[in-house]
Amino acid sequence: MRYAPFYTTVIAASIVAASGVTIAQDQARTRTEQQTQTRTEEQIYGSQLMTQQERNEYQARMRAAKTDQERERIRAEHHTQMQERAKAQGKTLPDSPSPHGGGMGPGGGGGMGPGGGRR
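Above: the chain's sequence. Below: its structure in token form.
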């Protein structure tokens, strides 16, 4: 019986530690989701004037486009729509959209280069 307080303390400490890990994981997941959302918004011209549904639909149209010419046409139409929307709201957007979505995209980072960052 004299070990009961010790076991109780160990169990309580384990529960506290496990809940701390869970909270940290939730916070990390939330940060990652927010960063992904920010990158997505930065890659879509005029995203600050769009609803989440409009951004999703635009991305779906771009993914469904079969050729570079079709994607370029969708981009140009979208650019015109966003310019008109900004003007109607009394806001301004840059004159030209970022080329090809503005982000690095899959495989666009180039990595560390020769040597892998070693000295």
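Residues 4-90 form one domain.
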